[in-house]
Amino acid sequence: MAGDDTAPETETKDDQLVSLFGDEDDAIFGDEDSDDEDELLEEGSVKVAREDIKLMNVVRAIVILFLLTVATIFGEAVFIITLIGEERSFEDAFEKTSNNLIEALFAKLNNDLWIAKSLSTDLALSAAQDEDSNWPFISYQDFDSRCKGPIFLSDASSIKFAPLVKSADHGDWEGWATQSYEPQPSSEPEDGVEFFSSYRSVDQGIFAFNGGFAQDVVADASLLSPVWQMYPAHGNQASGLIGTMFDEISNDVRNHTIESMLGCFGATMTPFQYGDTSGNDFVTYTVPRATVYYPIFGNDGVQSTSVTGSVAFEFSWEALLNNVLEEGTRDIVAVIENSCGGEHSFNVRGKTASFMGVGDLHDDDVDGYESVSSSYTAFNELFAEHRRLTAIDPCSYRVNLYATVSYKDYYVGSDPEVYRGIVLAVFIFVVAIFILYDCLVERRQSRVVTAAQRSDAIVRSLFPSNVRNRLYEQAKAKELAEREREKEAWKNSKNMSSNSSLGEGALIETPKIRLKSFISSGSALPEDQMPNNHQVSVAMEPIADLFPHTTIMFADIAGFTAWSSEREPSQVFTLLETIYRDMDKAAKKLNVFKVETVGDCYVAATGIPDPQENHAEIMVRFARSCLLRIDLLTKELESQLGPGTAELAMRFGIHTGPVTAGVLRGQKARFQLFGDTMNTASRMESTGMKNKIHLSTDTADKLTKAGFGHWITKRQDLVHVKGKGDMQTYWLLLGSSSMSETSSVISDDTSGLGALIRAPRSRPRKNKASFSGTGLDGVLGVTEIDDSLQRLIDWNVDVLITLLKRVVANRIATGVGSKALSTSAEKSLIGNGLVLDDVQMVIDLPEFDHEVALKASNEAVELVPEVKKELVEFVSSIASGYPKNAFHNFEHASHVILSSNKLLKRVMAADDIATTEKEALTSKELHDHTYGIGTDPITHFAVVFSSLIHDVGHPGVPNGRLAQEDPKLARKYVNKSIAEQHSVDIAWELLLLPKFKNLRACIYQDRIECKRFRDLVVNSVMATDIFDKELKALRNSRWDMAFAKKEIEKVLEKEDVDRKATIVIEHIIQASDVSHTMQHWYIYLKWNERLYREMYFAFLAGRSQKDPSEGWFEGELWFFDNYVIPLAKKLRNCGVFGVSCDEYLTYALQNRVEWEKKGKDVCKKMKSRAEEEARSLELLKQIGEEEEEEEQEVEESALAKAGGKAAVLDETNTRAISVPPGKLGIVIDTNDDGNPIVHHINDESPLKNKLNEGDTIVSIDGVDTKGMNSATLSTLIASGANRTRSFVLATGLDSIVE
């Protein structure tokens, strides 16, 4: 057994040795080829090493070649970039220098023109003051002294004065000149000017030059311009100066310029004056010059339209180009070019200019760097200010500027070559370092190879080849495995370093960290974290966590839904963007996290995503700052977004507690908050009040514990919260009494009877305008303009300015100049008839003009300041003419403007035109679709203008009652549409005042435009009288003609199109006048109650016989069924209002249903509020009764002085009143018998509750006023203005006792 066990063991060891070392025989003895194999292996190793060295040499050469190539490319790139930079610097510098030169040159020319104008005016005024002189027999003894200043201040080298002598005055003027000539001090001619040797004395008469010789002028010349006086003067003093009596018109160049001067009634400039080849000028020029001729007008130099002479400022172009550049500026070539022919070149170096020669002499080596002035236009614009008319073929100049070689060399030098050399040198140095380094590496590599060969020899001597090869393979495998382990270790260490704290191990990515990462990354999730439709998100854990200490705020804009129903979408977004932008700024500053905005609700949180110990304090500070800021913003935005904007306010709700926050993954990942805290905060907002910050008990407790308990106050009533029952809540104290608590949907209004004794809510910003002597006194100026009214005025002005700009742009496109229609022509279009007579069946709108539409759409205009100023005054005057009625007031007019402008914009949008093939409409398509309304800016302006003025002067009662209260007005308008006709007359009379002439010229400029504008205004305003049966029947008949019948497809006649347009315009104003019935329910309630209050207080004041409470509910249903809803349907049938017609009809139907459900309760509440207000007013009246009793004795005394005509409140209806010192605030007129009566009582009058309109004034302080004219009566009243006065009055127009 022992032998058996040993044998296998020995075999196993042998097998192992064989497997490790190979065949034992071979190991001991070897093969016969073993020596050869070793030699081959050794040769193979050396061969591989040599091949590696060879490969390294190739790579080395490639690298060196690559480096040299890169060096060359980089050097050339640096060269090109540097060269481009220098050339760009050169171009920028040259452009700047050129601009400076041109600006300075034109500034000098402009200065010279104004100096010439000043001298021209001075000479004209001087001649006008000399009673013994008349044109052309004018001479100035102090001409030299008058010209010294202009010569010093301008660039002129000489100034000449020449009167214009007509042929009829030729002989007389020569005789006068001989007698009047006085020698002037003479001086030597300046450089560049040479005179002919042949000239004549004064007594030889007016002369001309021909071939350099003086001769008589043409005998039958119609006009002469003899040089009479000049400064400085040259030549013989006794017999005449050189050039004196020379007729400038005889010279072609001067004649052309003088004719242009006479044609444009303004300054002109001669072409180049250089040399005189024809010898027909009295002087020759060796340096280019030019002369500016400035006309002398009449005897005053300003108002006269006749040119009686001229002053000529002569200067050289060198003088003009001197001092236009800074000292040290390099040479620039200025080529002056004249439109009448000729080019002259000048070299400008620093402050000095020199003439180079005739023609364009700039250096061609710098071609391409040319700066040209604004063609000839800039020169003409410079002279246009000094011309009354367009010049007749004037010669103009332009300046071409060129850089010189020296100028370019200053900026473009040898730097590019230097930089290129430096780059190449650096790269060569780098290549040298690389070669040195490579040699060192090769040396080391050679030593390593030698050492490897020795080691290999030792290994070969110890192991056979097969064993040696296996050892090599195992070592190589181990090395590869080690490298893989090192690579994995490096990756792990990198991951650990990014997710660990030093010395504390790896970080765990908590849900809060993931949430914070989501928020900071802009609310974006990687695609691999977005579950698809077929995934159940189990492997991908949601990003969510609990935040136990947070404060949540919900903020909502109270009244936003109703407000937005009146506006265009762009206005809605303007409001939201403005408010949210400011809230975002505050949130960022206070470190408040904005969660989201949903419509007009803003949700914010504190304590998320980072914990905040004082999260409740931060949130209430944020809410308070937002509330106060938005209160200011809405008032500021009212002038931009229209009426009602200032009434918007924020309602805040805040609650403190835990929330669950997470990311809802899906198509649009969102960060969301959930939990009871969110629900409670939302309830706090919905149960709060506008301009208030509503706090839950948890938030209040948090503030109290933090020491801010004085910030809050307990709410008196409990709040019922769904799911929680009744809760005690708190208000945040704002530190301001301006935020009043109110839960009423209807905004507080001080109009109605209460406005008679209530003080205004804010101090008036300006006094009432004066309209005395215009027929508008007592009609306009009856209402003070306070802050809220001023905001509405500003908004109305902005709307009208926008529309006027379109009118002006359209007019500019037509090529019509700016001119005003005469007042007589304007009045002739009106006549003396009724406004009602001007109602047109069809208004003639302009036909489509493609060229005008194309130009007007691209024309940017700006109204002149005078027009804007007059428009502000006009709108302010109209606003002051709206009494403080509850409904028919300026705010309602602004509401009508808002609606009409919205409808007109919807017409122009033309959304209902099919545009399947193209995304835009042409102007022609818009014109055809809108019956011409969409492309006529005057129509748009007229409709909005009509909305502005349609109720001005409205008395607050219907036309029937108005006829009883003002019989004279009723007779004037034949008892038809009294208020409407009166409004048109008021506005038109105001517009025709002289102070609005620029505004009128902007609206219309000829009889056609004026008539169209008035027709549009009259038809629009008359359309608001919806109860006049004749007008209603007329409108219905036109509607049937235009829209009731289905039209066969054909080309409509222009009259048919205009009829449709006329009807559409009238329906726009009608719908806008009652637009509150076709808007949000709360808007309808607001204006419905205001109308009720107006009628109710009129009833209490005895101005109406019927209590509006009786039948108000049924009347509104009738109004919806018989007017509002049919009107909304007509808007849809017109086919031009797009989505607005559906919007109006939908609201009308909804409001009708709501009124039928809630109308009776609404009526009860309206009546209750009105009665409560009336009772409060009665209490205030009782307080004043004691003061009235104290005045009783004074009144009785006044009656006694009146001759016992009546006793206080006796049967004769005669009474006495005590009038306090100061202004009365009443308008006094005379009745048919010539007795003074009270015509109108202003709202702020101290006699408001003591007088009635129509009372006859019997006496004042005992003085009988029967038959007293207005002037005497005014003097009597003014004489006692500083004391208490006694008036005796008789009720009614005819009650005065004879």
Please provide the count of β strands: 34
Percentage of residues in strands: 5-15%
- As residue ranges, the low-confidence spans are 1-44, 499-506, 523-528, 532-539, 736-768, 1202-1212, 1293-1298
Provide the residue-averaged pLDDT: 78
Number of helices: 37
Form type: flat
Please give the largest β-sheet: 8 strands, mixed
Using the CA coordinates, give the radius of gyration.
Answer: 49 Å
Helix content: 40-55%
Structural class: alpha+beta
Keywords:
1298 residues, alpha+beta, eight-stranded mixed β-sheet, 37 helices, disordered C terminus
Give a description of the structure:
By secondary structure, the chain is α+β, with helices and mostly antiparallel strands. 49% of the residues lie in helices and 14% in strands. The chain contains 37 helices and 34 strands. The strands form ten sheets. Strands 19, 20, 21, 22, 23, 24, 25 and 28 form an eight-stranded mixed beta sheet that branches. Strands 7-1-11-10-8 form a five-stranded antiparallel beta sheet, with helices on both faces. The longest helix is centred in the N-terminal third of the chain and has 96 residues, at 34-129. It is flat, with a radius of gyration of 49 Å. The N and C termini lie far apart (173 Å). Mean pLDDT is 78; it is low at 1-44, 499-506, 523-528, 532-539, 736-768, 1202-1212 and 1293-1298.
